[in-house]
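Extended Data, record Probable RNA 2'-phosphotransferase
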Amino acid sequence: MELAQLLYHGCMDWIKLEKLLSFLLRHSPETLNLNMDASGWVETDALVKAVKFKEPKFDLKFLQKIVKDSQKQRFSFSEDGSKIRANQGHSVKVDLQLSPADPPETLYHGTVERFLDSIMQEGLKKGDRQHVHLSLDLQTAEKVGTRRGKPIILTVSAREMQQDGYVFYVSDNGVWLTENVPPQYLDLQLS
């Protein structure tokens, strides 16, 4: 999606601003001349100033509200609030400094039917992102799958994967991450 499509002219729109922040903090900080460090952090003041230039009503309080109240909890501030970053989903290379975590027995992935054959043959791949995203519960996976149509839920034998040497991480907002999920660890979740 292009930057122009993400900006809403006239008044602030929560969803469009959240998408803009995702675009800037996950994929393209340079679009608004933002500098991202190796851990994915951007100076909060610089972000507010850059977005405010495009959306004059935007300010630090609105940014804080998005970070605090966003249902998906996509963003985090540094401890002192001087920096902000996306919790996961980056297509630009960043080191989120996550430690390996022991996954539960099963994790879930929401998708749609048109991708199912490919996934069952090739597994889940990270594509242009740094990790495959997995959910702890069926409801979250269903919400993820719903974004593209009627959801199909896959179960991931996460503990078995870990025993076979695969590494898992958990982002600050509870999304489970791994490099890929080979097809032998996947099953179709039946309703």
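Summary. DSSP finds seven helices and eleven strands in the chain.
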